[in-house]
Structure formats: structure tokens, C-alpha cells
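Hi Prof. W.,

I finally got the EGF-like domain-containing protein prediction working! I wasn't sure whether to trim anything, so I left the full sequence exactly as given:
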Amino acid sequence: CDEVRGNCICYDGYAGSDGNGAVGSRPDCGYVNAAISACPGIIPCNGHGVCDPSTFRCTCQDGWGGGACSLRTCPFGKSWFSYPSADNIGHNQLALCSNMGLCDRDRGICNCKNGYFGAACEYMNCGGGSG
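And this is what came out:
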């Protein structure tokens, strides 16, 4: 999938979905429009996962994701902006790149927005001073 453009080039037998597995206009390859007889990828699960022969679904190794285990995963951190989960407890939800960066699926790293840093963009650069 091309996250910049927001669309995917689907393997044979897959097409855009409605977001719930039925055929639709989303360019996500989430609809299966043919009988599946193998796991996705030229090499099953692109060599980054294990194919379940009964469902032809991939279980990806750590660090890999997507239906065909072809996308690097990025770290999750506590969300900078989320609803509190209880009184006196906030920002408890985990979010990809802490919602303060974009995941580079080719390299598996977060590209943080200005003012944020860390593997999951979990730290804020307060600027000036050292403490």
C-alpha cells in the first residue's frame, strides 16, 4: 500500500472494500473476490510470517504487518491527544507513533512532527534549557 496516496495495488483475487470486508470503493484490498488457495505474496507471507493452510492468512513476525506481511510496523506510544480513561488518568491509549508522527512502512520508523522525538514520537522537545 502507498500510504502517501492512500491506495493499494491489490494481489489477484483482492479488491477495494467497504471497510468491513464487503466489496466497496476503499482502495484497501480488503475484499476477497476469488477463491483463495494460497497465502499472499510471491513467497508466502513475503518470508516475514507463517501461512495458516486452513485459512490462507498470514501471522506476521514481530516488526511486520499487513495481510501479506509486507509492511514494516512502527512503534506505538501513549497518545498525546486522547480522552481520559478515568478520573485523574489521561493519555492511556496507545497510538501509532503516539499520533505525532508518520510511520515509514519501508523502514519501520516514525517520522516525528516538529517538536516531538523518540522511537514512537513519545517525547516533546520543550526547547531552550536543559531541564
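The chain is about 0% helix and 30% strand. Does that look reasonable to you?

Thanks,
D.
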